[in-house]
Design a protein that fits this description.
By secondary structure, this protein is mostly helical. It is 70% helix and 0% strand. It is built from one helix and no strands.
Length: 56
């Protein structure tokens, strides 16, 4: 009985980790797209030049 429970717990943990990693890949892709768009769509900075859309 105990080995069966351990296998079921392991399966649930691996399924949860797989779903979390898949979600993290999608979040990373969205952040990458927003970051790349920041280079294309930049507001005008002080002095008439094109500034950065982030402050760091």
């Amino acid at each position: 009985m105990v080995p069966l429970l351990l296998v079921l717990i392991l399966a649930v943990l691996l399924f949860g980790a797989g779903f979390a990693l898949e979600a993290l890949w999608w979040i990373a892709a969205v952040v990458l797209v927003v970051w790349l768009l920041g280079f294309v769509i930049r507001p005008a900075g002080t002095g008439g030049g094109r500034g950065r859309w982030y402050r760091w």
